[in-house]
Amino acid sequence: MKMFNILLTIVFLIFALLQYNDPDPYIWIPIYMLAAFLCWQSTKNKYPGYLYAIGILICIVYGTYLFFDKNGVLSWANDHASESLVHTMKADKPWIEESREFGGLLIVLVVLLINYFLIRKTKTGKNLPASD
Question: Whole-prediction pTM value?
Answer without folding.
Answer: 0.82
